[in-house]
Amino acid sequence: MNGPDALMWLGILYAVVPTAVFVIAFYLCITWPLTAPVHERLQRQVERKQLRLAKKAG
Length: 58
Fold this sequence. Notes:
58 residues; single chain
């Protein structure tokens, strides 16, 4: 059986941690706008990584 301490930590893991991650992500979305040039650069990086992984896999 789970004691009160275990249930408290389970509640923290399932409530507080995801909320904190969401708040950080929301802050980053507001303070770091995704402009067209930044989006293009990120897209090129992802494409290069996908090509590299595809070559490595097959």
